[in-house]
Batch of 2 targets.
Target 1
Amino acid sequence: MRPWLFAIPVLLSLALAQPFRVTDATGREVEVRSAERIVSVGGSISEILDKFGLSERIVGRDTGSYIPASLLKKPDVGLFFRLNAEAILAQRPTLILTVSEAGPPPVLAQLRQAGVSVVLVPDEPTPEGVKKKIRTIGAAVGQPGRAEELVRALERDLLALRSKTRVRRGEPLRVLYIYPRDPRNTFVCGEEASGAGLITLAGAQNAVKTVQGAGAVRGCVNLTAEAVVAARPEAIVVPFFPDQPFSFENILRLPGVAETPAGRNRRIVAMDVTYISGYGYTAGRAALELHQALYEKTGSVRINHPGFNP
Amino acid sequence: MTPDPLPPVQRRRPGVLLALALLLPLSLLWGAASGAYYIPPLEIPRVLREGLEGASVLLSIRFPRVLLAALVGGTLALSGAVLQGLLRTPLVEPGLVGLGLGAAAGAVLWLAFFPLAAWGLPLAAAVGVLGVLFLLLRLVPEGSEQPGARLLLVGLLLSSVLSAFIGFLQFRVGDPQGRSLTFWTLGGLGGAGWELLTLTAPLALLSGLLLLGQSRALNALTLGEEEAYHLGIAVGPLKRRALLLVALGVGAVVGAAGNIAFVGLLVPWLLRALGGADHRFVLPAAWLLGASLTVLADLAARTLFTPSELPVGLLTTLVGGPLFLYLLVREGWRG
């Protein structure tokens, strides 16, 4: 046993104790005094923390964080847009990492007032956005080196994807992104919605470029049956939730779907919701798998998240 | 010499008031002692004194929330009692005859034009209440038969139109505080903080105190407008003043916590059953009981299904609605 080995835990704890400064999605400069106890709000953030090897530090998670499966044993602090301040503070966090749409805003303000560092992680649904997300989380937990490794791995995945999309000839496939909200309405998302962004990344085109009309929520809207048919989708992409039953039949029964080319040929790709819309470090792989499902397969395809095996 | 024996109902009043005055601090303490963030109730004084972990939860989240619940409930119950006296029917209350949603509509409209000027929200909500009051009194003129039932019917129709209007506005208007249609229609105290409390308290308390001062005049009014006039009460100005005060109070609390129904209906009814209809008793007692019940309802709303919370109006309606139906049937549609 060499004496200098004892210095390692000491140095490590010193390294952990120093405050990190990070600029979050709102441009706010946040000081993170300790990243010992983290509440992670957003499936992609939890995934990235796990990839950093920090899943033991997660003391609370939102309902949508289920990867890795060990997170399911941790206290659930609610849905990301309906957070409850007391339930989060009950886990005595020192750092709260959330997706930028988390809320409601008064609750975030309460958490800041309670003296916890709250970092809203930027999450634009683009490859650049993913890199920014990884680097912000890395800065907040003091792991910039690991963040760069993850960014490099993501770039390799994106390169593999590009080698496929470059050689493909012909008009890109027209794809309709449906978010299954209720059985009576076809809730469709335009290009700027997070899940639908992966469609363009995978080398297909969104059948409804932008969602027009009142009542659009985050780039999605209830489309009338006729508008669904008018969009002429050749394939349909839907997210599914691992904890809820999913059936292709229910998608085909949504208003307007059966009358489209996609509906007639049952061309539906169902993809794990975190995998398709989380834009975590797996975004490159997800886009590659989606590309293969759309261009190299036929009929209905189900894509599970590689990291989720309950 | 023994004094004249009072009727038994009146003899009960001091006791009821005393019990209610004790119930409020107890509810406040219970509400302050429990929540999703567990702190052993007996440890709370020590946690606060020594500024331990959890002190900030208590100070910046739970205490203002409990106080806001009391303020909202007290104001709603008192406003309900005053409205019932003014319109001489036990069937009206702010949440049920569209006043609450009028306030919400006013608030949402204000947000549409001035999303960042929070200070104007309670006033805009009060204007919304006044608008609905004006409509109600227009559509149900003095001296119509069964004014209570008519007010209820018209009020309920107005409510559904208003909630659709709010929903439509929210289609077009973003809210920086993320308030949803559910918040406006079913209420919620999740956004409570000192800021919201200081925004709400002055108007709500002012309206409450001034309304308490109207209890004698309201008593005279229950005898009928004619008699009140002979007793030297200026009926028209009294009505206008009281309705304006109700609008300010209801506007302030609905702007802060949405539309929490049935508190203003059942509390005065219960008190009249306990101690008679004298407003000098009913008004202060209604404030105390409304405040206590709302604190307890909110406590249930935020602890039954930790970590998520229910809209508090869901609970008051679930309990209050059936009770109200029972009353309607039993009282044989009087009013």
Note: Chain A has twelve helices and 13 strands.
Target 2
Amino acid sequence: MDVELHDIKVLEASGTSIILDNGAIEEISANFSKRAGVRVLVDGSWGFTSTDDINAIDDALRSAIGLATQAHEKAPCTSFPITLTGPTNIRHISKVKKDPSDVPVEEKVQLLKDIEQQMKLPQIVSTNVYYSESEVHMLYTNSEGSECESKLTRCGFGITAVAKDEDLQMGFDSRFGVCGYEIFDRYDALSLANDVATAAVQLLSAKASPGGHLPVILDPKLAGVFIHEALGHAAEADLVLEGSSILKEEMGRQIASELISVHDDPTLPEFGYYPFDDEGVSPTRTTIIRDGVLNHYLHSRETAARLGFPKSGNARAQGCGIPIVRMSNTFIEEGDTSFDEMVEDIQYGIYLIGSRGGQTNPGEGVFQFNAEKGHLIENGSLTMPLRNVSLSGNTLEILKNVVAVGNDLKYHSGLCGKNGQLIPVSDGAPHIKISSAMVGGSV
Amino acid sequence: MISQIESIVKCAEQAGADEVEIFYVDGKVISIDIERDEISLAEKSIIRGVGIRASVDGAVGFSSTNDFTKVEEVIEHAVKYATIKSQDVSDWGGFPSNGKYPKVDGVFDKKLHDIGLDSCIDYAVKMIDGAKSVERAMPTSGNFVCSSSTRTIYNSNGIMVRESGTIIEGSIDSVARDGDISTASEFDISRSLDIDFYQIGFNASDLANRSLNGIRIESGEVPVLLRPTAFAEIIGHALVPSLDADNVQKGRSALCGRLSTAIASEELDIIDNGLLAKGVGTAMMDDEGTPSQKIDIIVNGMLETFLYDCYTAGKDARKSTGNGVRRSYSSAPAVGIRNMTIQYPPTDIISETSHGILINSVIGAHTANPVSGDFSVEARNAFTIRDGSICEPIKSLMLSGNVFELLKNIDGAGFDVRAVGNIITPTVRVSNQQVVG
């Protein structure tokens, strides 16, 4: 039995997080870790061993070969012709403008307290400010002779405000990036805190959303979450292979309005950036949808080999976990309609703003998202503020119902979960207008 | 590691700590991944790491590592952070000191601790076989996980406790096709080797198959029956955060000021039981070394208590309820449930429902508003109920409301009590629930 491929990843990471809760320090903590992961492919079966002991890589390699061999002998997997492409050598040591480890903890705490002060509106009863920084040093080698090294610093913050009258409402926002402490130069955290608190207070007087099939406008944040959750996941080739993606039979077909083009691009300097993926593949921009036509899936080495496509460099892992097909920076290409033009011709509809998260079933193309807030649109203008506005329905129906794409693309950072692994990503979108979608709210 | 305890304590004291706590985890995990009807990956991981907390002038700092050459650095960080934090807070009630632990049953199975890869593959294959046994259905992906780990907790107040536990878990997703397409998933989890893996696979495929060719229904208010998986999802995301004493103390819970008032249907009880035999959240102590207990949260619809760890208990000058839970050695403890059990007098609930909707699971529960309890979810694998029988599948259905309204409107429960992770519940019936079709 032959070992077709093996790869070894060694990771050394450190991170600090600070939580300021109702103005007082709730937690300051640091973590230091080292870990190694070894993966082996034997006749189509993978074996994988991860360990905290980075001096025991030979043992881990033997263990992984043993696991793959046993798995192959016991329950053989259909073998696939993995493309061996020769060595890649990539070295990327991130240069940050302000190394967060040079900033004293006391200074960080003071900044968080200044941010918190901006939320002190009369009806705000509770606040939370969260800060985190991490530095990850990764060495990747494989049996093809690849040697890749990266060191990435990530920094960011999240802000929450709770407002109260008879009822409680919440505002939230966050900014994270592949960067250093200059994240606070890039974004005005103080004014963002004020916006979050103001939003929470405004929600107190907002009304519940009407339910039914209505024209809607999604703001860039919600449109970004939608494209990530509802389309992006369905475009992951492992789900396509499993038969749990609605895009399985759709390659080359018109699956969305002609106004829609969607890309995934790990090379953009956003939160989902990486210099090489967790299989040592140099990443490239992948156009998932071009002018409404499904153009490409996202691939790992295995899915690319099984489906006969070029590799896209979308195999990613949390820490030393097993690499799986993941997104990076996924975005809807900008169009040319202004937000005002979108609102103008809606007689009765809803403008959905922000996202409290969402979930999707890529096999059936059913999704559900909750906006943070919204506005009723009546006779071409925004009117009553709304709360608990949710959007659900069928992904392909929504994509076909897009009637305008905005000229105001924005990215938002987040963490994406799949198979128990969380990784940093960003979603990008301009405002988009949909002729009809199912919206609902609380009674 | 144990040999290092003394030097850790000395090091922390020299750095200025009043109290020290060491939380050490040592474990191994075997997992098998299923793709379509094949075993795609066999994985083994060894996990070993330590989290250290130090208190200084009534404030606690935390730091962690799995690199034992960095232990001294970690201790210094924990002490330094406690010192900075102590300028803000001084209501720390101390680490636990009562070292008397109850006996618990069924948390460690030596057969699981010693399990070989061959048996793990066999169980995964049984799930696949079960899923393939249903016409029109096929598995799409699945996972088998078996873990064995030991927690050791030491603190300078005299706690020195160690406990081992095992967990075995299988889950599978199936898809059914006959022109239409429908999916379903099923799982089971246990502390010992007593799971029927074939049945997990069969149930997933059977539900996917029965959900094919769903109808659309009208929006409106109807009686809704939430199966354990669906109800546990909503409870876990919309109710549990409001019971966390930390959220209550900080004004982020809709239950602030509502102790000893009726918040649910009169016949409803909710208990959190860290001692439940064989429970997924069962152990003799929580992750801070507080002895596990059985806590009455809601009795006859009345809210009796919130849930506390040492930190929140210190603030209210009371004792921890044994709800200090850590995600891993690298996280500080926070309030979490152990085995939350929902009790309501059971009846033959489906045959007693003249009309309504049965929902097996939901998606999007994590988007619930944890402060207000408002939720809006998409129902999965839902069916109509007419004259006491389960009828047509429903294609798409949005369910929205507020968890506290829902608790008040519960008017029935089934005999089908099931552990959905660490929430244990029967099917419950909610008298009038808003649905959007």
Note: Chain A touches chain B through 76 residues (CB under 8 Å).
